[in-house]
Write a structure and sequence with these properties.
Oligomer: single chain
Number of strands: 9
Order of helices and strands: HHEHEEHHHEHEEEEE
Largest sheet: 5 strands, mixed, barrel
Distance between the termini: 50 Å
Strand order of the largest sheet: 5-6-7-9-8
Strand content: 15-25%
Radius of gyration: 25 Å
Structural class: alpha+beta
Shape: elongated
Helix content: 25-40%
C-alpha cells in the first residue's frame, strides 16, 4: 500500500518500514513525543493552560487523525488478504453509493474466484460465498475494502481444500500481473512468477475489471493485503485498464510448433463474449478436467451458440511447466 508520510516531522529522518502499520505506530509515537516536548517547553517557560492548548492543538489534531483514521486502515491492510484502496471524485462527496459498493464488491470477488478456478484445474460448483468480503474502513475522498478468504476451519477439507489453496495463489497472481502491467516488468518475469498460462490470462482479465474506467468516477485503485506476496508499486488507473484490454485482445500463442496443435472433446459451460474467453469442461482426457480457451473475432457470430454444447475444440495449446495444456487458442469448433 501507499504509506502516508505527513505528520512525522522533519527533524529526524524516519526509518524504513516493512508495513504501513509499523509506520502508523511509529508516527503515533513521534507525535506523542512531540506533545510531551511541547508540555515541557510550556512548563519551562512558566506558560499557562491557554499557551499549552494553543501550541499543542495542531499535534493533538494529528494524533486524533492517526488513531481514528490511519491506524484502523493500516491494521486492515495487515489483516486483510486483499486490500483495495480506491480514490476519485465519486468518493469525495460523502459515503459511497450502494450501487457503487455493490459493483465493486461483486466484480472483485468474482474476478478473484475466476483466477482461483483457473489455478485449481478442477470444476468447482461452489457459490461466490466461498469468499467472505468485509468493508474495512471508509475515509473521505477514498475507500478501503478488505477481502478475507475463508478460514480453513470453515470447510470440511480444512487446509486441503483446493479452492482455498487456489484462492491464495489467485491473490499472488493478481499482484504479479498488476506489477507486470504497471511497473513494465518483462513477459519473462511474469512467466517465472506465474508459470500457468491460464492463470496469467485470468489474472490479466481480473486486472482489467478491477482497474477503474474513465466513466467510473474513480481515478485509481491501489492493491495491498497480506495475500499479495508480489505487489505492484503503482496503482491501477484507467490507463492500466486500457493496457490490460489491449493485451486481452491481442492474445496469441507464444509458440506455434505442430506438436502444440491439439483437439479436445468437451462441453462449453461458460463464455465471455466481450473478452472472447470460454471454459471447456467434462473433457474426454486423462490430463485435464477443464481448459480455458481464447477465440478470435471470426467466431463472434457463432460463439453464443456454443454454450452447453458438446464440441470438439481445435487449436494451439500453451503448456505449464509440467507440459500440461492450460490455455488453448481456438482455430476451429465442431460438433462432437
Amino acid at each position: 500500500m501507499d504509506f502516508p508520510t505527513s505528520g512525522l516531522g522533519e527533524a529526524t529522518p524516519a526509518p524504513r518500514f516493512d508495513t504501513w502499520l509499523e509506520q502508523a505506530r511509529y508516527k503515533a509515537r513521534v507525535l506523542e513525543d512531540q506533545l510531551f516536548a511541547v508540555r515541557r517547553y510550556v512548563e519551562d517557560a512558566d506558560g499557562d493552560e491557554a499557551m499549552l492548548d494553543a501550541l499543542s492543538a495542531p499535534i493533538r489534531g494529528l494524533i486524533q487523525q492517526v488513531y481514528a483514521e490511519e491506524l484502523p486502515m493500516a491494521e486492515a491492510d495487515v489483516s486483510a488478504d486483499l486490500m483495495l484502496h480506491y480514490t476519485g471524485p465519486a468518493l469525495e462527496a460523502g459515503a459511497p453509493s450502494i450501487s457503487l459498493l455493490t459493483r465493486l464488491f461483486t466484480e472483485t470477488r468474482a474476478q478473484v474466484r475466476n483466477i482461483a478456478l483457473a489455478v485449481s484445474h478442477v470444476t468447482d460448483q461452489r457459490p461466490e460465498t466461498s469468499f467472505d468480503l468485509s468493508l474495512s474502513v471508509y475515509g473521505r475522498g477514498s475507500l478501503y475494502i478488505g477481502f478475507s478468504l475463508p478460514s480453513p476451519d470453515s470447510t470440511l477439507l480444512g487446509e486441503g481444500d483446493p479452492l482455498i489453496q487456489a484462492a491464495r495463489e489467485a491473490l499472488r497472481a493478481l499482484g504479479a500481473v498488476s506489477r507486470e502491467i504497471t511497473d513494465e516488468s518483462s513477459a519473462e518475469e511474469l512467466e517465472d512468477a506465474i508459470p500457468n498460462p491460464a492463470v496469467r490470462d485470468a489474472a490479466l482479465q481480473a486486472v482489467r475489471q478491477i482497474a477503474p474506467s474513465q466513466q467510473s468516477g474513480i481515478e485509481s485503485v491501489r492493491l495491498g493485503g497480506r495475500g499479495l506476496t508480489i505487489r505492484p508499486s503503482r496503482p491501477l488507473t484507467p490507463a492500466t485498464r486500457g493496457e490490460a484490454q489491449r493485451r486481452l485482445q491481442v492474445s496469441r500463442p507464444r509458440q506455434t510448433s505442430p506438436e502444440l496443435r491439439r483437439a479436445f472433446v468437451g462441453t462449453i459451460r461458460e463464455i465471455d463474449l466481450d473478452d472472447r474467453r470460454l471454459n471447456l469442461r467434462r473433457i474426454e482426457s486423462d490430463v485435464v478436467e477443464r481448459l480455458r480457451c481464447v477465440y478470435t473475432s471470426e467466431f463472434d457470430g457463432t460463439a453464443r451458440d456454443w454454450l452447453d454444447q458438446r464440441v470438439v475444440v481445435h487449436g494451439t495449446a500453451e503448456l505449464d511447466r509440467d507440459g500440461v495444456p492450460r490455455l488453448l487458442h481456438i482455430a476451429d469448433v465442431t460438433p462432437a
